[in-house]
Amino acid sequence: MASEKTSYPKEKIRILFLENISDLAVKNFQQQGYTKVEKITKALTEEELIKEIKDVHILGIRSKTQITQKVLDAAQKLQAIGCFCIGVNQVNLDAATRHGVAVFNAPYSNTRSVAELVIGLSIMLIRRIPDKNKAAHDGIWMKDAKGSFELRGKTLGIIGYGNIGSQVSVLAEALGMKVIFYDVETKLPLGNATDGKTLKDVLGKADVVTLHVPETSQTKNIINKTTLKYFKKGSILINYARGEVVDLEALRKALLEGQLSGAAIDVFPWEPEKNGDRFQSPLQDLPNVILTPHIGGSTEEAQQNIGEDVSIKLFNFLEKGITFGSHTVPALALPPQERSHRILHIHNNVPGVLSAINTELSKHNINIVGQYLKTNEDIGYVVLDVDKQLSNKAVQVLKDVKETIKVRMLY
Predict the structure, then answer these.
(1) 89 and 210 housed in the same domain
(2) Which range of residues forms the domain containing residue 346?
(3) pLDDT tens for each residue of 263-287
(4) Which string of b and e fits 133-159 if b means at least 16 CB within 10 Å?
(5) Residue of 259, 255, 240, 284 whose CA lies nearest to 120
(6) DSSP state of 117
(7) Which residues participate in catalysis according to the annotation?
(8) What is d(CA 359, CA 27) in angstroms, rounded to the nearest whole number?
(9) pTM of this structure
(10) For 352, left (φ over 0), alpha (ψ -120 to 50), or beta?
(11) The CATH number of the domain where 341 resides is what?
(12) What CATH number is attached to the domain comprising 2?
């Protein structure tokens, strides 16, 4: 990614980072020669973002900023969005695909941070530490073993056996727990974990249930008044996944009735915009309940890992045209070609576009040194290496090809 390889003026590339993204990401871009890097500590509303994004080439966000179709329609120069977090559900991926905007994220970077905290919470809740902590703060001495247990020998139920769920599984086994999991996809168990086959089966056997599922129409309120009845009486629920997957009113009732003995919740259907804002939840003031402000992956190590991971993906796309890890533009990785210029062409995926590209270049006697194509259902992505002497002409020719969405010359 040496700066001399790019032929576009780096000082004109505007990069906007929102939501207090790691300073490491800012430094990475500055060290690569990008001078127009702006960092804002908060999320922006749709209206604010529409005003800001007109001249932005690279946008960095976390989980609060919503990238809607209106925002993307206003983003005239936007090349890529870096989601410095695990998910991408805050981005309208269909609209981003239609606009030819590459969307990257960091699906593995905070895995360890979340997994460690889930184990820590399991110990705190099964020992009823929140109750004893509150009593001590209130000046009450509560030295009592009743209702307090070891994790060893207990069963952990994991709903969603992906990157985080499987790492929780490994840590839990190291503490002597039995692990049973449920996932809609067939997953190879790690260690001695077993596949529970059904959600009901896992909920009925687990002493501690931890959720690690994405937010989809299928997972919304997956824990509700019906499924809460499947839980083993006196068990514990941990949700460090997504706020929409648990019906909090139903959970409150289950806790008050003793169906569950404790819970730890980090994500909520509605969350405040910024630190210091008023927060309300049906689970406040309940015994043996730990509420945290969406900090499951918020460690210094995780934020540095995320900053590094997403920065590299953005650099690779911006300077090499590599799209591995993109949720919108088809994945391509390609070696550099000597004595040529590289041009990226994103177009609607309809028959005949590649033929039209080659025909037009041939008409103008533009020699193709290398060519790479990948498509998805909506768009096609072509990377062309052409003779240096004719590269500017090639860019103009490619812009005129029917169904073109974006054309960009890298070097």
Answers:
(1) no
(2) 332-411
(3) 999 999 999 877 889 999 999 999 9
(4) eeeeeeeeeeeeeeeebebeebbbbbb
(5) 240
(6) H
(7) 242, 271, 294
(8) 43
(9) 0.83
(10) left
(11) 3.30.70.260
(12) 3.40.50.720
